[in-house]
Amino acid sequence: AWAAKTDHGAHVIALTGTADDNTSPELARSYVSALQAVGVDAVFSPVEGATHNGSFRAPEVMAAVGRLIRP
User: Do residues 32 and 44 lie in contact, with contact meaning Cβ atoms separated by under 8 Å?
Assistant: First the structure.
């Protein structure tokens, strides 16, 4: 139900560290799948070897931000 409430104009990039023991990568994958199923532009991008907090410092995060803010 929550995915259907997401603005279909939203762009979502879910980044999760593969070594995250707080938010599992599978949770992020299922989140993205639910969004895609209702037509939201969403992608899952695992951060190889990163922990929950370590993923925030990964270069993949800045790359994702760049993709979201480019016109």
Answer: yes
